[in-house]
Amino acid sequence: NLQEWREGCDPTREAHAPGRSMSSGIDTFPQVELYTSDIKLCKAPHYLNDNLIGFAFKYLENVMFPKTDFLFVHPGGAFVISHEDDPEDLLDTVNGIGISTEKKLIFFPVNDGGNTSMQFTTSSQGSHWALLVYDSEQRKFFYYDSSGSSNRIPALRLARQLNAVLPCGAPQKNEDSNQTATSSEARVMVVKSSAPIVVESKCPQQTNGYDCGLYAIAVARALAEAQLKSMKVGSSSSTEHLGKVVKPQTASQLRDDIPKWIKATAKNKKPKS
Prior knowledge:
- It is a single chain.
- It contains 9 helices and 7 strands, in the order αααβααβββαβββααα.
- The chain has a 7-stranded mixed β-sheet, with helices on both faces.
- A hairpin with a 4-residue loop joins strand 3 and strand 4.
- The relative contact order is 0.14.
- It is an alpha/beta fold.
């Protein structure tokens, strides 16, 4: 349940791949639950599960972008935040994960699986991954989806849950609060007057039905790279950077790279003799 994750357990611990009961655990990062059977999902045409997304996000945070003000949230944490209905428990969860405006960028994987009645969420209960990014300087959420606007509703729900902790600037005024303001590259999604600002940003599009998780990882990595080069999230320069570095072959390369990341991380975790 929700309390289990807040106490350090991953709600995605249920089996995601055949043979999980016979699979060995892999020690990588805290609060990342990973098994040898998960690695099989790195081969196409498999869909990345919560465990692999969680590992990849923590690899980005700890290895690729260490000593930065970037936070990459585990899918289990994002799920708990989306569905927690007790304000005090929600605040405890957010604080436990380390979410605050002191972080320059916060990356959240967004999955369309699960609902408030489920004890656990697994990627097998969903069909698509997308990315939600909070920029504390701009005081906005940015939504990136490699399949149109497939995860628009889950992204908005997550942003609403975070709005009290991650404040946004005043939403664009609109006579009809349910309308969506549009522009050439992005649109601000305003559900009601008190809703957070969520900018639906231009995102490279996947060319198949199973690479969404890889695109979420690739886009998160590219946005972090762009930020370090003074290209703000949502800017034309950042969008141009995404178009150059996130392509179908990027997803294919990540399928080869993630098992290497896992192997390197697990090796470094082994006690020295």
